[in-house]
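Can anyone check this?
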Amino acid sequence: MPEIQDIFSSLKPSSLSLEQNKAFYSIRNCRTDQLGSHVDRCDSCKNITISYNSCRNRHCPKCQGSKQKEWVQAQLSKLLPVGYFHLVFTLPHELNTLFLQNQKLLYPLLIKSAGDTITELAKDPKYLGAQTGVTAVLHTWGQNLSFHPHVHCIVPGGGLSLDGLKFKTSSKKFFLPVKVLSRKFRGKFLFYLKKAWNEGKIKLFNEAKDLAHGFNFLDFHDRLYTKEWVVHAKKPFKSPWHVINYLGRYTHKVAISNSRIISFDGTKVNFKWKDYKDKNRLKVMTLDTSEFVRRFMLHVLPLGFTRIRHYGILSSRNISVKLALCSKLLSKSTGIKAAVPEMTKYVKVCPGCGGTMVFAGLIDKATNLDALTNMCTSINTAYRASSVP
């Protein structure tokens, strides 16, 4: 089956930003002789294997598996024995061009607006009257690779009371009213947007340059207040463990996985996509290679940008005290303790004896895999011969 790497290897695109150029060539060269190789040795039978290096770029579909497992393992200890809710914050499409031209500025404002919306409304006694937590994950794509920035938020069904003496549990089927969430979110984001404009931080060029003239930007800003912004409240998770399964699929997801590529003939790419506007029907889209790559590159994030963020009792300054207190209060009131997960570590298994393969060194830019395989065979044969009594 064709992969994204095969598509990238078929052309050399122009006009890439620094971030896009790095992602493009990392994916293109991943696990090839261009990145060199490494040696692993079995700690039991001393068998040696040599493999090409991975690029470890966060946009590479081949390199997210191990990172995803490591991240999920780290989140297991943060789960509370309560139901969890899934909220999705989306933007009007009129903001797409502005976001593309100001990603480093606006992506953080988008995530912050969603996180603050939830935590501030949860503190309101009219709704929950408690300090809750939020794990927010930025996605920038639609199923057809279009540019569609939105934020997925996972929220525990309750929070620490404002006096810090008890854990207040929300309804099992309802967390916060969607209309209130959407309007609060709209107000917060547009407040931050106007503030950034007044401080001269927003860049406008090409098709957006007209907004820089006179009061055009402020008029554009005011028109966004007249639109209804959409917040989806999805069905609550059945258990905290379902949360982890979900997070594992979403946190380290890239714009499109290799499994969705159906065919590639050198000039056109066919891939599967789900049309949410047509009853979630599965369809096939065909794009020219250059257009496919252009769309993929839209979703390369700024260097150093953090797309997973935590708010409220899950934020770095609160988690060690307030989350631990929530677990203690829940255990005291319900008798249910948060599960203590068994932490597992990824281990590469020896193909010969089933032992553990341990990293033994790097090989700089190997010429080809056949030569490496022959080298391994020779070393292993020589070792076994020398080990015979």
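Reply from J.R.: I decoded it. The domain at 80-255+298-334 is CATH 3.40.1310 (Replication Protein E1; Chain: A,).
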